[in-house]
């Protein structure tokens, strides 16, 4: 989540108990990372909540967003393992391609075994996978941009949709299949409006 243990603080207007001044360098640093990490290790939930109320809005929003994303990933991992069957086609965010699910987690790290299109066997954490829908409900998206077509195809598969790409003259046509028309239509509407978010819906 964090790039560095010592994060420079350039927020002038906010008085924060975690804002530390380094007199040698003449710079302010944010000590919240260290405090937050220590409280998490100790499992002190009440102190964590209190500290979040004291820290600057920028850091608080980043922490809350990170926690939201972590919760979503945990729920998606749980749903994936509850529904996947050996032989199912999945999208693997580690391999960035469709793969075949082979085996449930075989170690404490939660790694699952999968096979790539060229027959190679690998393992990746179970939170990296999304089951690809077998449904035949369809919505279409067109773009002349090859890079966007490939990117949106990956995004659709990342969210559990099945995708076919056809090139018609100078246009790339994405055929996006799923289980519910409402979900696919909403997804395509967001693509058309360039409002793109990861993990569009829970699997």
Outline the structure in words.
By secondary structure, this protein is an alpha+beta fold. It has three domains: 7-71, no CATH class; 85-131; 137-192, Alpha-Beta Plaits (2-Layer Sandwich). The protein has five helices and eleven strands; from the N terminus they run βββαααββββββαββα. The strands form three sheets. A five-stranded antiparallel β-sheet has the order 7-6-5-4-8. Strand 5 (97-103) and strand 6 (111-115) form a beta hairpin.
Mean pLDDT: 82
Helix content: 25-40%
Q: Detail the poorly predicted runs.
A: 199-203
Number of domains: 3
Major β-sheet profile: 5 strands, antiparallel
Write down the secondary-structure element order.
EEEHHHEEEEEEHEEH
Strand order of the largest sheet: 7-6-5-4-8
Molecular shape: extended
Outline the fold blueprint.
Elements (H helix, E strand, L loop, with lengths): L6 E2 L10 E4 L4 E4 L1 H11 L2 H10 L2 H27 L5 E4 L4 E7 L7 E5 L5 E5 L3 E3 L5 E7 L2 H13 L3 E7 L2 E8 L2 H12 L11
Antiparallel strand pairs: 1-3, 2-3, 4-5, 4-8, 5-6, 6-7, 9-11, 10-11
Helix pairs in contact: 1-2
Comma- or semicolon-separated keywords:
203 residues; alpha+beta; Alpha-Beta Plaits; 5-stranded antiparallel sheet; 3-stranded antiparallel sheet; 5 helices; extended; disordered C terminus
Describe this structure in a few short sentences.
This protein has 203 residues and is of the alpha+beta class.
């Amino acid at each position: 989540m964090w790039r560095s243990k010592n994060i420079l603080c350039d927020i002038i207007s906010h008085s924060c108990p975690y804002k530390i001044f380094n007199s040698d360098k003449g710079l302010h640093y944010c000590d919240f990372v260290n405090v937050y990490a220590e409280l998490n290790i100790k499992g002190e939930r009440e102190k964590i909540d209190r500290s979040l109320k004291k820290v600057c809005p920028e850091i608080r929003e980043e922490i809350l967003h990170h926690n939201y994303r972590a919760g979503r990933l945990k729920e998606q991992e749980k749903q994936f393992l509850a529904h996947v069957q050996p032989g199912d086609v999945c999208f693997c965010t580690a391999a960035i391609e469709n793969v075949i699910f082979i085996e449930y987690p075989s170690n404490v790290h939660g790694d699952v075994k999968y096979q790539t299109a060229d027959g190679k066997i690998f393992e990746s954490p179970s939170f990296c996978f999304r089951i690809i829908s077998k449904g035949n409900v369809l919505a279409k998206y067109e773009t002349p941009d090859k890079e966007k077509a490939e990117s949106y195809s990956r995004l659709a598969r990342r969210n559990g949709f099945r995708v076919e790409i056809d090139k018609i003259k100078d246009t790339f046509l994405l055929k996006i299949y799923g289980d519910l028309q409402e979900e696919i239509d909403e997804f395509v509407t967001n693509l058309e409006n360039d409002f793109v978010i990861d993990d569009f819906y829970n699997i």
